[in-house]
From TrEMBL, chain A:
Biological processes, Gene Ontology terms: phosphocreatine biosynthetic process
Residues engaged in binding ATP: 127-131, 190, 235, 291-295, 319-324
Keywords attached to this entry: ATP-binding, Kinase, Nucleotide-binding, Transferase
Phosphagen kinase C-terminal domain residues: 124-366
Family statement: Belongs to the ATP:guanido phosphotransferase family.
Phosphagen kinase N-terminal domain residues: 10-97
EC numbers on record: 2.7.3.2
UniProt name for this protein: creatine kinase
One GO MF term attached to the UniProt entry: creatine kinase activity
A Pfam family annotated for this UniProt entry: ATP-gua_Ptrans
GO cellular component: extracellular space
Automatic annotation (TrEMBL), chain B:
Pfam families: ATP-gua_Ptrans, ATP-gua_PtransN
GO cellular component terms attached to this protein's record: extracellular space
Chain ranges of the Phosphagen kinase C-terminal domain: 159-407
InterPro entries: ATP-guanido_PTrfase, ATP-guanido_PTrfase_AS, ATP-guanido_PTrfase_cat, ATP-guanido_PTrfase_N, ATP-guanido_PTrfase_N_sf, Gln_synth/guanido_kin_cat_dom
Any one GO molecular function term: ATP binding
Species, as recorded: Electrophorus voltai
Domain Phosphagen kinase N-terminal: 45-132
Keyword Kinase included in the entry's annotation: yes
Family stated for the protein in its record: Belongs to the ATP:guanido phosphotransferase family.
Protein residues bound to ATP: 162-166, 225, 295, 351-355, 379-384
Catalytic activity: creatine + ATP = N-phosphocreatine + ADP + H(+)
The keyword Nucleotide-binding is annotated on this UniProt entry: yes
GO biological process per UniProt: phosphocreatine biosynthetic process
Protein name (database record): creatine kinase
Length: 380, 407
């Protein structure tokens, strides 16, 4: 273990003196951390030098909200999840529905295993999208990485993406060299990501050196998009108008595989293990890191008293069409999978496909003035 | 479309309550900009070449960017201070905040006293550029004897609305705000509260810890412009000084009305006749663990700068003595004077000034020239970079290093 000078310096102070004041806090980290755990872990650091205080800083600086449960901790590298498992295992368990340290996660990116999903009613489903994140093995994660590492990730990513052909062919736009014109176009397409402003993200350190080595790749059709060095090394997004989730998912899986092949050639595959699946910066994104969903018109169903219950049973969540916590506009909701860890990509997208299909049928019934009581699903 | 990354309107942090937090998805804006990074470890980075690690400063305009070179970076990148502060820690704020075409920001901070020594190759040129050619061999003079100030008690109150002097102090033996741990910060708070509580006579006052403040106390302090908020400036945040907010931060306030000290009490808020500071209140106030360990401020209405300066010097000297009785002194050396987080505040760390009505002079074509020749600077009455209101300007000294407090 590499010697971390600053952490050693802090060891001069007692546990009591260094323990954060979490009395006003409501996030997963604050729920899981105890003085015993802090005492046990405070002298440790990962081989790259990430320490307990680094893990928890974002949760200390952002007490949270009475109604929304934020995670409050991040990983700085792959080893964080091992070195600090005494804290991260309970956080993971709490966040991912009781997932145990001994559980195994199943990865299935074979799009052919998805049943149906190509026929969601376009009168209701406006658009479909699947996104995930990937971390490149051998580099530290955005809260911790240096400029040199970030640039190396960017370089490898560019190589991977520029090798893509067919429907994936496209162009990479580094944030720092973007022209005004390119920027305006990317904003109009809703592709451009800004320097984060959320204190949750910023307190973790992932915005250092912005916009150095950050960029966006998208294919000519604007249906496949990759963000480089934002909250994770890579964020991969497949999307299109209408309800053909199967096509979106196929493009997603095929594109991911092609990209992964290039990274593997350089002995820098994706971070993955059989317990946590794909390793990402935020513990909430472990497993598949996948959020697959649709923008769907459900003006009647969304005002039905059992709407929330239905979503919960279908293992889905709703958001407004601007993303998390925005209001829905015109009865249009963003409906996506709630789970990340403990079920596979195919399973999660299947839940979206089946669930949305059912909800559209419910909506149609409600339009006709009929009851949907006999359609309420059992808990999946 | 989905998960938009949109930038909404910028909201400054005004509210101390924990609900300031923007609770929605990380990508929706509300509030701040860059905040601190974790404690990045230097050894790992040495695997990469200096060139691979060298920051891109092509769009940058700050003192750090002017002074740093790839060769310098190469020489300094493997070093760290005894407490573990590294070159990247020193410069992170300047990398993250390219600056402004018209305002020259400093772009680097110290994490401890030793920073100014270990990284002198970078900080000496920054200091020289910022402080009018101050050389590495120059000596700084400290003079906190108010008797040496000639006059200053008769500035015309029809023009001078208020007078104020502030400075910062760092406690030797502790790391500075960009780097200090919770344990250190709390130790500084504890020591400061002990020292300040021992002040007597017309310097007597009360400490208000930020995290225990009631809504009423908070509002009162904001209304009187005493309260400091969690910083929102990306310049400050990127340095790491806002970590663990509001833990171990507070305000010590002594309000003097004649010989009577009226500490701020919530039940007085509704009775304005009891509040002295709306009239000719004279104030001595200390901020704990904001941008520096201590910020000491003396102010009052009207133009009696001599009185303000006297209280300032007396208070500071007493505080320093009290710290010494506890075995702690202020960081100071004969080259840099008082050591503070930002290189721009070295020397005296002093900004002394008045709010003065100069509606005609300020429009005179030679106004800027006059200020410059007098070694003064102007600001709006809201502080740096605000506009003047009603022809009232904040006029203060431009220098910090190379001149004494009395000078």
């Amino acid at each position: 273990m590499t010697k971390n000078c600053h952490n050693d310096y802090k060891m001069k102070f007692s546990l009591e003196e260094e323990y954060p004041d979490l009395s006003q806090h409501n996030n997963h980290m604050a729920k899981a951390l105890t003085k015993e755990i802090y005492e046990k872990l405070r002298s440790k650091s990962t081989p790259s030098g990430f320490t307990l205080d680094d893990i928890i800083q974002t949760g200390v600086d952002n007490p949270g909200h009475p109604f929304i449960m934020t995670v409050g901790c991040v990983a700085g590298d792959e080893e964080s999840y091992e070195v600090f498992k005494d804290l991260l295992d309970p956080v993971i368990s709490d966040r991912h529905g009781g997932y145990k340290p001994t559980d195994k996660h199943n990865t299935d990116l074979n799009w052919e295993n998805l049943k149906g999903g190509d026929d969601l009613d376009p009168n209701y489903v406006q658009s479909s999208r699947v996104r995930t994140g990937r971390s490149i093995k051998g580099y530290t994660l955005p809260p911790h990485n240096s400029r040199g590492e970030r640039r190396a990730v960017e370089k490898l990513s560019i190589e991977a993406m520029t090798s893509l052909d067919g429907e994936f062919k496209g162009k990479y736009y580094p944030l720092k060299d973007m022209t005004e014109k390119e920027q305006d176009q990317l904003i109009a397409d809703h592709f451009l990501f800004d320097k984060p402003v959320s204190p949750l993200l910023l307190a973790s350190g992932m915005a250092r050196d912005w916009p150095d080595a950050r960029g966006i790749y998208h294919n000519d059709n604007k249906t496949f998009l990759v963000w480089v060095n934002e909250e994770d090394h890579l964020r991969v997004i497949s999307m299109q108008k209408g309800g053909n989730m199967k096509e979106v998912f196929k493009r997603f899986c095929v594109g991911l595989q092609k990209i992964e092949d290039v990274f593997k050639k350089h002995n820098h595959g994706f971070m993955w293990n059989e317990h946590l699946g794909f390793i990402l910066t935020c513990p909430s994104n472990l497993g598949t890191g996948l959020r697959g969903g649709v923008h769907v018109k459900l003006p009647k169903l969304s005002t039905h008293p059992k709407f929330e219950e239905i979503l919960t049973r279908l293992r889905l969540q709703k958001r407004g069409t601007g993303g998390v916590d925005t209001a829905s506009v015109g009865g249009v909701f963003d409906i996506s999978n709630a789970d990340r860890l403990g079920s596979s990509e195919v399973q999660q997208v299947q839940l979206v496909v089946d669930g949305v299909k059912l909800m559209i049928e419910m909506e149609k019934k409600l339009e006709k003035g009929e009851s949907i009581d006999d359609m309420i699903p059992a808990q999946k | 479309m989905f998960d938009l990354v949109s930038n909404g309107p910028w909201h400054p942090f005004r509210d101390f309550s924990y609900n300031y937090l923007l609770l929605s998805h990380p990508r929706h804006s509300q509030g701040t900009s860059a905040m601190p990074f974790g404690n990045t470890h230097n050894q790992l980075k040495m695997k990469y070449s200096a060139e691979a690690e060298y920051p891109d400063l092509t769009k940058h305009n700050n003192h750090m960017a002017k002074a740093l070179t790839p060769a310098m970076y190469q020489r300094l990148r493997s070093k760290q201070t005894p407490s573990g502060f590294t070159l990247d820690d020193v410069i992170q704020t300047g990398v993250d905040n390219p600056g402004h075409p018209f305002i020259m920001t400093v772009g680097c901070v110290a994490g401890d006293e030793e920073t100014y020594e270990v990284f002198k190759e970078l900080l000496d040129p920054v200091i020289e550029d910022r402080h009018g050619g101050y050389k590495p061999t120059d000596k700084h003079k400290t003079d906190l004897n108010p008797a040496n100030l000639k006059g200053g008690d008769d500035l015309d109150p029809k023009y001078v609305l208020s007078s104020r002097v502030r400075t910062g102090r760092s406690i030797r033996g502790f790391c500075l705000p960009p780097h200090c741990s919770r344990g250190e910060r709390r130790a500084i708070e504890k020591l400061s509260v002990e020292a300040l509580s021992a002040l007597t006579g017309d310097l007597k006052g009360k400490y208000y810890a930020l995290k225990n403040m009631t809504e009423a106390e908070q509002q009162q302090l904001i209304d009187d412009h005493f309260l400091f908020d969690k910083p929102v400036s990306p310049l400050l945040l990127a340095s790491g000084m806002a970590r663990d907010w509001p833990d171990a931060r507070g305000i010590w306030l002594g309000v003097i009305h004649g010989d009577l000290v009226i500490p701020l009490m919530p039940n007085h808020v509704s009775d304005p006749s009891v509040l002295p500071w709306h009239n000719d209140n004279k104030t001595f106030l200390v901020w704990v663990n904001e941008e520096d360990h201590l910020r000491v401020i003396s102010m009052q209405k009207g133009g009696n700068m001599k009185e303000v300066f006297t209280r300032f010097c007396t208070g500071l000297t007493k505080i320093e003595e009290l710290f010494k009785t506890k075995g702690h002194e202020f960081m100071w050396n004969e080259h840099l004077g008082y050591i503070l987080t930002c290189p721009s505040n070295l020397g005296t760390g002093l900004r002394g000034g008045v709010h003065v009505k100069l509606p005609n002079l300020s429009k005179h074509s030679k106004f800027e020239e006059v200020l410059k020749r007098l070694r003064l600077q102007k600001r709006g009455t809201g502080g740096v970079d605000t506009a003047a209101v009603g022809g009232v300007f904040d006029i203060s000294n431009a220098d910090r290093l190379g001149f004494s407090e009395v000078d």
